[in-house]
Protein backbone atom coordinates (compact mmCIF):
# COMPACT_ATOMS: atom_id res chain seq x y z
CA UNK A 1 0.00 0.00 0.00
CA UNK A 2 1.30 3.42 -0.97
CA UNK A 3 0.49 6.06 1.60
CA UNK A 4 0.50 9.80 0.97
CA UNK A 5 1.15 11.05 4.48
CA UNK A 6 2.80 8.27 6.44
CA UNK A 7 5.63 5.75 6.04
CA UNK A 8 5.00 2.21 7.21
CA UNK A 9 7.62 -0.43 7.88
CA UNK A 10 8.35 -3.36 10.15
CA UNK A 11 11.42 -3.63 12.38
CA UNK A 12 11.63 -7.15 13.75
CA UNK A 13 8.36 -7.78 15.55
CA UNK A 14 7.53 -4.06 15.70
CA UNK A 15 5.32 -2.11 13.29
CA UNK A 16 6.59 1.42 12.72
CA UNK A 17 4.39 4.27 11.46
CA UNK A 18 6.18 7.55 10.66
CA UNK A 19 4.03 10.62 10.09
CA UNK A 20 5.34 12.19 6.92
CA UNK A 21 4.05 15.67 6.04
CA UNK A 22 7.29 17.48 6.81
CA UNK A 23 6.32 20.77 5.12
CA UNK A 24 3.31 21.12 7.42
CA UNK A 25 5.07 19.78 10.54
CA UNK A 26 2.95 16.63 10.22
CA UNK A 27 -0.32 18.53 10.60
CA UNK A 28 -3.04 15.91 10.84
CA UNK A 29 -5.57 15.88 8.05
CA UNK A 30 -8.37 13.42 7.44
CA UNK A 31 -6.38 11.36 4.93
CA UNK A 32 -3.42 11.05 7.27
CA UNK A 33 -5.55 9.82 10.15
CA UNK A 34 -7.33 7.37 7.80
CA UNK A 35 -3.91 6.12 6.75
CA UNK A 36 -2.85 5.58 10.37
CA UNK A 37 -6.04 3.53 10.83
CA UNK A 38 -5.32 1.47 7.75
CA UNK A 39 -1.73 0.79 8.86
CA UNK A 40 -2.95 -0.22 12.32
CA UNK A 41 -5.47 -2.63 10.73
CA UNK A 42 -2.57 -4.26 8.90
CA UNK A 43 -0.33 -4.52 11.96
CA UNK A 44 -3.14 -5.82 14.09
CA UNK A 45 -3.89 -8.59 11.61
CA UNK A 46 -0.20 -9.49 11.21
CA UNK A 47 0.81 -12.29 13.58
CA UNK A 48 4.45 -11.28 13.18
CA UNK A 49 3.81 -7.95 14.90
CA UNK A 50 3.61 -7.66 18.69
CA UNK A 51 3.74 -3.89 19.23
CA UNK A 52 3.53 -0.66 17.25
CA UNK A 53 5.44 2.63 17.35
CA UNK A 54 4.08 5.89 15.95
CA UNK A 55 6.64 8.63 15.42
CA UNK A 56 7.11 11.90 13.54
CA UNK A 57 10.16 13.91 12.52
CA UNK A 58 12.95 15.53 14.50
CA UNK A 59 11.11 18.84 14.44
CA UNK A 60 7.55 17.67 15.01
CA UNK A 61 5.64 14.62 16.10
CA UNK A 62 2.62 16.58 14.86
CA UNK A 63 1.85 20.30 15.18
CA UNK A 64 -1.88 19.64 15.45
CA UNK A 65 -4.86 19.18 13.22
CA UNK A 66 -4.48 20.82 9.82
CA UNK A 67 -5.58 24.39 10.46
CA UNK A 68 -5.89 25.28 6.77
CA UNK A 69 -8.24 22.36 6.18
CA UNK A 70 -10.66 23.42 8.91
CA UNK A 71 -10.35 27.20 8.78
CA UNK A 72 -13.57 27.74 6.81
CA UNK A 73 -15.66 24.98 8.30
CA UNK A 74 -19.23 25.72 9.32
CA UNK A 75 -20.79 24.11 12.36
CA UNK A 76 -22.67 21.79 10.00
CA UNK A 77 -19.47 20.70 8.24
CA UNK A 78 -17.87 19.91 11.59
CA UNK A 79 -20.87 18.20 13.16
CA UNK A 80 -22.16 16.23 10.18
CA UNK A 81 -18.72 15.01 9.16
CA UNK A 82 -17.72 14.34 12.81
CA UNK A 83 -14.73 16.45 11.91
CA UNK A 84 -11.83 15.56 12.37
CA UNK A 85 -12.18 13.00 15.09
CA UNK A 86 -14.33 10.58 13.04
CA UNK A 87 -11.39 8.22 12.55
CA UNK A 88 -9.17 9.01 15.54
CA UNK A 89 -10.47 6.43 17.96
CA UNK A 90 -8.84 3.71 15.84
CA UNK A 91 -5.59 4.33 17.71
CA UNK A 92 -7.35 3.72 20.99
CA UNK A 93 -9.16 0.60 19.80
CA UNK A 94 -5.95 -1.08 18.63
CA UNK A 95 -5.52 -4.14 20.85
CA UNK A 96 -1.77 -4.35 20.44
CA UNK A 97 0.30 -1.81 22.41
CA UNK A 98 1.07 1.45 20.63
CA UNK A 99 3.99 3.64 21.71
CA UNK A 100 4.20 7.30 20.69
CA UNK A 101 7.83 8.24 20.04
CA UNK A 102 7.80 12.03 20.25
CA UNK A 103 10.44 14.56 19.23
CA UNK A 104 9.76 18.26 18.72
CA UNK A 105 6.24 19.64 18.68
CA UNK A 106 3.28 17.56 19.86
CA UNK A 107 0.60 20.24 19.84
CA UNK A 108 -3.19 20.23 19.77
CA UNK A 109 -4.28 17.12 17.91
CA UNK A 110 -0.62 16.02 17.92
CA UNK A 111 -0.57 15.95 21.71
CA UNK A 112 -3.97 14.23 21.65
CA UNK A 113 -2.73 11.58 19.23
CA UNK A 114 0.26 10.90 21.48
CA UNK A 115 -2.06 10.61 24.49
CA UNK A 116 -4.25 8.07 22.66
CA UNK A 117 -1.22 5.78 22.49
CA UNK A 118 -0.43 3.50 25.41
CA UNK A 119 2.73 5.32 26.42
CA UNK A 120 4.87 8.21 25.29
CA UNK A 121 8.63 8.01 24.97
CA UNK A 122 9.94 11.52 24.41
CA UNK A 123 13.10 13.07 23.09
CA UNK A 124 14.56 15.85 25.23
CA UNK A 125 13.45 18.19 22.42
CA UNK A 126 9.75 17.34 22.80
CA UNK A 127 7.23 20.10 23.47
CA UNK A 128 3.64 19.32 24.41
CA UNK A 129 0.75 21.74 24.31
CA UNK A 130 -2.94 22.30 23.70
CA UNK A 131 -2.84 25.76 22.06
CA UNK A 132 -6.28 25.52 20.40
CA UNK A 133 -7.53 28.45 22.48
CA UNK A 134 -5.32 30.75 20.39
CA UNK A 135 -7.32 29.68 17.32
CA UNK A 136 -10.67 30.31 18.97
CA UNK A 137 -11.42 26.61 19.46
CA UNK A 138 -10.82 23.98 22.10
CA UNK A 139 -9.19 20.56 22.05
CA UNK A 140 -11.47 18.10 20.25
CA UNK A 141 -9.76 14.72 20.39
CA UNK A 142 -9.50 14.18 24.12
CA UNK A 143 -7.23 17.03 25.22
CA UNK A 144 -9.56 18.28 27.93
CA UNK A 145 -10.16 14.70 29.14
CA UNK A 146 -6.95 12.69 28.78
CA UNK A 147 -4.59 15.52 29.76
CA UNK A 148 -6.15 16.09 33.23
CA UNK A 149 -6.13 12.34 33.84
CA UNK A 150 -2.45 12.23 32.91
CA UNK A 151 -1.13 15.40 34.56
CA UNK A 152 -3.88 16.52 36.95
CA UNK A 153 -6.37 19.36 36.73
CA UNK A 154 -4.03 22.25 37.58
CA UNK A 155 -1.50 21.62 34.83
CA UNK A 156 -4.17 20.63 32.30
CA UNK A 157 -6.02 23.91 32.94
CA UNK A 158 -2.74 25.80 32.67
CA UNK A 159 -1.86 24.24 29.30
CA UNK A 160 -5.35 24.45 27.78
CA UNK A 161 -6.13 27.96 29.02
CA UNK A 162 -2.78 29.70 28.48
CA UNK A 163 -1.63 27.70 25.42
CA UNK A 164 1.89 27.48 26.82
CA UNK A 165 4.07 24.53 25.83
CA UNK A 166 5.44 22.00 28.31
CA UNK A 167 8.94 20.63 27.71
CA UNK A 168 9.90 16.97 28.01
CA UNK A 169 11.30 17.26 31.54
CA UNK A 170 8.14 18.88 32.83
CA UNK A 171 6.01 16.35 30.93
CA UNK A 172 7.87 13.44 32.52
CA UNK A 173 7.64 15.01 35.98
CA UNK A 174 3.91 15.51 35.48
CA UNK A 175 3.32 11.91 34.39
CA UNK A 176 2.48 12.44 30.73
CA UNK A 177 5.65 10.83 29.48
CA UNK A 178 7.10 7.43 30.39
CA UNK A 179 10.75 8.14 29.52
CA UNK A 180 12.81 11.08 28.25
CA UNK A 181 15.93 10.29 26.25
CA UNK A 182 18.40 12.28 24.13
CA UNK A 183 16.88 13.07 20.74
CA UNK A 184 19.30 10.90 18.76
CA UNK A 185 18.47 7.85 20.91
CA UNK A 186 14.71 8.37 21.10
CA UNK A 187 13.52 6.16 18.24
CA UNK A 188 15.88 3.33 19.20
CA UNK A 189 14.63 3.52 22.77
CA UNK A 190 11.00 3.32 21.61
CA UNK A 191 11.71 0.47 19.18
CA UNK A 192 13.59 -1.42 21.85
CA UNK A 193 10.74 -0.99 24.36
CA UNK A 194 8.31 -2.18 21.68
CA UNK A 195 10.52 -5.18 20.83
CA UNK A 196 10.67 -6.12 24.52
CA UNK A 197 6.87 -6.01 24.73
CA UNK A 198 6.59 -7.99 21.50
CA UNK A 199 8.69 -10.75 23.08
CA UNK A 200 6.09 -11.44 25.77
CA UNK A 201 2.91 -13.48 25.48
CA UNK A 202 0.54 -11.42 23.29
CA UNK A 203 -2.67 -12.44 25.12
CA UNK A 204 -1.06 -11.38 28.41
CA UNK A 205 0.13 -8.11 26.86
CA UNK A 206 -3.42 -7.43 25.66
CA UNK A 207 -4.89 -8.29 29.08
CA UNK A 208 -2.50 -5.85 30.77
CA UNK A 209 -3.27 -3.10 28.25
CA UNK A 210 -7.00 -3.58 28.73
CA UNK A 211 -6.68 -3.61 32.52
CA UNK A 212 -4.50 -0.48 32.75
CA UNK A 213 -6.93 1.32 30.44
CA UNK A 214 -9.73 0.43 32.86
CA UNK A 215 -7.82 2.30 35.57
CA UNK A 216 -7.61 5.30 33.28
CA UNK A 217 -11.21 5.26 32.16
CA UNK A 218 -13.39 3.89 34.93
CA UNK A 219 -13.88 3.73 38.69
CA UNK A 220 -11.43 1.98 41.03
CA UNK A 221 -13.87 -0.74 42.08
CA UNK A 222 -14.86 -1.55 38.50
CA UNK A 223 -11.20 -1.61 37.54
CA UNK A 224 -10.22 -3.90 40.41
CA UNK A 225 -13.02 -6.31 39.53
CA UNK A 226 -12.03 -6.28 35.87
CA UNK A 227 -8.37 -6.90 36.75
CA UNK A 228 -9.27 -9.84 39.03
CA UNK A 229 -11.37 -11.48 36.31
CA UNK A 230 -8.66 -11.07 33.71
CA UNK A 231 -6.00 -12.17 36.20
CA UNK A 232 -7.88 -15.42 36.88
CA UNK A 233 -8.33 -16.04 33.16
CA UNK A 234 -4.56 -15.79 32.62
CA UNK A 235 -4.29 -19.21 34.33
CA UNK A 236 -6.06 -20.68 31.31
CA UNK A 237 -3.07 -19.78 29.10
CA UNK A 238 -0.32 -22.22 28.26
CA UNK A 239 1.98 -19.17 28.23
CA UNK A 240 1.31 -18.84 31.98
CA UNK A 241 2.36 -22.46 32.51
CA UNK A 242 5.46 -21.85 30.40
CA UNK A 243 6.36 -18.55 32.11
CA UNK A 244 6.17 -20.01 35.59
CA UNK A 245 7.81 -23.33 34.68
CA UNK A 246 10.69 -21.38 33.11
CA UNK A 247 11.15 -19.39 36.32
CA UNK A 248 11.15 -22.53 38.46
CA UNK A 249 13.56 -24.28 36.07
CA UNK A 250 15.79 -21.16 35.90
CA UNK A 251 15.58 -20.79 32.11
CA UNK A 252 14.20 -18.25 29.61
CA UNK A 253 10.50 -18.71 28.79
CA UNK A 254 9.49 -19.70 25.26
CA UNK A 255 6.10 -18.06 24.84
CA UNK A 256 3.94 -19.76 22.23
CA UNK A 257 1.49 -16.94 21.57
CA UNK A 258 3.62 -13.99 20.63
C1 LIG B 1 -1.40 23.36 9.22
C2 LIG B 1 0.71 23.88 9.96
C3 LIG B 1 0.33 23.55 11.30
C4 LIG B 1 -1.01 23.10 11.51
C5 LIG B 1 2.39 24.18 11.30
N1 LIG B 1 1.98 24.25 10.02
N2 LIG B 1 1.42 23.76 12.10
N3 LIG B 1 -0.17 23.77 8.95
N4 LIG B 1 -1.83 23.03 10.45
N5 LIG B 1 -1.44 22.72 12.72
C6 LIG B 1 2.75 24.69 8.86
C7 LIG B 1 2.98 26.17 8.85
O1 LIG B 1 1.86 26.84 8.33
C8 LIG B 1 4.18 26.29 7.96
O2 LIG B 1 3.79 26.14 6.62
C9 LIG B 1 4.99 25.05 8.30
O3 LIG B 1 4.06 24.14 8.92
C10 LIG B 1 6.10 25.33 9.29
O4 LIG B 1 5.54 26.00 10.40
P1 LIG B 1 6.14 27.36 10.98
O5 LIG B 1 5.06 28.01 11.75
O6 LIG B 1 6.79 28.16 9.90
O7 LIG B 1 7.28 26.80 11.95
P2 LIG B 1 7.80 27.44 13.32
O8 LIG B 1 7.99 28.93 13.17
O9 LIG B 1 8.98 26.62 13.72
O10 LIG B 1 6.63 27.22 14.38
C11 LIG B 1 6.25 25.92 14.73
C12 LIG B 1 4.89 25.93 15.50
C13 LIG B 1 3.84 26.70 14.66
C14 LIG B 1 5.07 26.62 16.85
C15 LIG B 1 4.51 24.49 15.73
O11 LIG B 1 3.84 26.14 13.33
C16 LIG B 1 2.45 26.59 15.21
O12 LIG B 1 2.12 27.29 16.16
N6 LIG B 1 1.62 25.74 14.61
C17 LIG B 1 0.23 25.59 14.98
C18 LIG B 1 0.10 24.86 16.27
C19 LIG B 1 -1.36 24.71 16.68
O13 LIG B 1 -2.06 25.72 16.87
N7 LIG B 1 -1.84 23.48 16.79
C20 LIG B 1 -3.22 23.21 17.12
C21 LIG B 1 -4.02 23.09 15.86
S1 LIG B 1 -5.75 22.89 16.19
P3 LIG B 1 4.29 27.16 5.47
O14 LIG B 1 3.56 26.71 4.24
O15 LIG B 1 3.96 28.54 5.94
O16 LIG B 1 5.77 26.91 5.42
C22 LIG B 1 -5.91 21.30 16.64
C23 LIG B 1 -7.30 20.91 17.02
C24 LIG B 1 -7.45 19.45 17.21
O17 LIG B 1 -5.00 20.55 16.66
C25 LIG B 1 -8.88 19.11 17.27
C26 LIG B 1 -9.20 17.66 17.24
C27 LIG B 1 -8.51 16.85 16.25
UniProtKB/TrEMBL annotation:
Molecular function terms, GO-annotated: enoyl-CoA hydratase activity
Pfam families recorded: ECH_1
Keywords noted in UniProt: Lyase
Gene3D superfamilies found in the cross-reference section: 2-enoyl-CoA Hydratase, Chain A, domain 1, Lyase 2-enoyl-coa Hydratase, Chain A, domain 2
Enzyme Commission numbers on file: 4.2.1.17
Superkingdom, taxonomy of origin: Bacteria
Alphabetical list of SUPFAM superfamilies matching this protein: ClpP/crotonase (SSF52096)
PROSITE patterns: ENOYL_COA_HYDRATASE
InterPro entries, per the entry: ClpP/crotonase-like_dom_sf (IPR029045), Enoyl-CoA_hyd/isom_CS (IPR018376), Enoyl-CoA_hydra/iso (IPR001753), Enoyl-CoA_hydra_C (IPR014748)
Primary enzyme class: lyase
Protein family (similarity comment): Belongs to the enoyl-CoA hydratase/isomerase family.
Protein name, entry field: Enoyl-CoA hydratase
Organism the protein comes from: Thauera sedimentorum
